[in-house]
Design brief:
Layout lengths: L4 H4 L1 H6 L11 E5 L1 H5 L3 E4 L2 E3 L5 E3 L5 E4 L4 E4 L5 E6 L4 E6 L8 E5 L2 H10 L3 E5 L2 E5 L3 H6 L9 E3 L3 H18 L20 H5 L4 E9 L4 E12 L2 E12 L16 E12 L4 E16 L12 E6 L5 E7 L8 E10 L3
Parallel strand pairs: 1-7
Antiparallel strand pairs: 1-4, 2-3, 2-5, 5-6, 7-8, 9-11, 9-12, 10-11, 13-14, 13-20, 14-15, 15-16, 16-17, 17-18, 18-19, 19-20
């Protein structure tokens, strides 16, 4: 389907995002249909917004939730989602990656408009009864940059628990169809396993990991930030690859563009944890996240990254090897340290 003009600018805008070091992710506000019917809107930067699609609040930026009779301050911390619900404008909060799926949104809109939006962000669309589930890298950030067509009735977050429950149900249905016993539970946690076993450590991999390596073949440093989530069907996650031209003796990110290349891409990934504790995570798709330095507007090609390796005894270090089945082959050893966890 040919994209409408209202969507065409998005790819160019994403390719020219600033490359500040350590930039915080946005927080987001959504107002549901009932609250909007009661007149609630968000005032930000001198404009009044419906927040039918996610409205980004950068760096804990303050906004105002208003209707004809009231005004109240509204903030969202980096990575936080604030949902304004109902005629009384009650707020619910959750964190992207912990409570809310980062790459999913449920849309209430005509099919044609929903498909245009999905195509504009390079995502996929699945029917979910009266709504459409949009799956795309950085779905929240991309949706926050969209013009809001009048045909869109609303958008809603997808709870991580809801996806895990659906996946578990699908797993149980498959077991039932093949005559296997259904456990009805997700793999047991660390506390449920015998002390010191590799299987017990293998279940404790959800969270954010980061490691760095130098590739002689590219003449560049690569810093990988990997976020993994676990469900009954295995691992899902994202990989951010930050690369810059440099020499083996200088691992620091350059403060200025010095004639070399520097960019970031983000990859959607999925994988498994083996019974012996080996973690395998394979990227499935990629998109340019930021272009920092270099002559080309953005990386035109990128070979998908694959990680395999086991955890250290304390579970805070992932001793892996990364390869791309192409240039970075055979793989290069990398140590990824745990930056945060998900319920350890």
């Amino acid at each position: 389907m040919r994209l409408l003009a209202r969507w065409r600018w998005l790819g160019l805008a994403m390719g020219t995002m600033a490359c500040g070091q350590g930039a915080e992710p946005s927080g987001y506000v959504l107002i549901d249909r009932e609250a909007r019917a009661a007149g609630y809107r968000v005032e930000k930067d001198g404009r009044t917004e419906s927040a039918t699609l996610p409205l980004a609040l950068e760096d804990a930026q303050e906004a105002t939730l208003v209707n004809a009779d009231s005004r109240q301050s509204l903030t969202a911390q980096p990575g936080e989602v604030v949902i304004v619900r109902g005629a009384n404008a009650e707020t619910e909060r959750g964190m992207i990656g912990r409570d809310v799926e980062p790459d999913m949104l449920d849309l209430e809109a005509p099919e044609g408009v929903a498909r245009e939006l999905a195509a504009a962000v390079g995502g996929e669309l699945d029917a979910r009864g009266a709504t459409w589930r949009l799956t795309a890298l950085d779905a929240w950030e991309l949706a926050s940059q969209m013009p809001v067509p009048a045909e869109v009735v609303g958008a809603a977050p997808v709870a991580i628990d809801a996806v895990a429950t659906a996946e578990l149900a699908l797993t149980d249905e498959t077991r039932a169809s093949t005559g296997q016993a259904s456990t009805g539970t997700v793999a047991p946690s660390l506390s449920a396993q015998g002390p010191g076993s590799s299987a017990s450590r293998s279940t404790d991999v959800a969270g954010t990991w980061q490691g760095q390596l130098y590739s002689e073949r590219h003449g560049a440093w690569y810093e990988f930030t990997v976020t993994m989530r676990q469900s009954a069907r295995g691992l899902r996650g994202e990989v951010t690859a930050h690369s810059w031209s440099g020499t083996p003796d200088d691992p620091m990110v350059p403060a200025k563009c010095n004639g070399g290349e520097r960019w970031k891409v983000r990859e959607a990934a999925q994988g498994t944890v083996g019974a012996e504790g080996t973690i395998t995570l394979e990227s499935q798709s990629w998109a340019v996240l930021k272009r920092c330095c270099g002559e080309a507007p953005a990386p035109g090609e990128y070979a998908l990254d694959h990680f395999v390796g086991g955890l250290s005894a304390d579970g805070n270090q992932w001793n892996a090897e990364v390869h791309d089945h192409h240039v970075m082959w055979p793989g290069i050893p990398i140590v990824l340290k745990r930056l945060s966890d998900a319920g350890r």
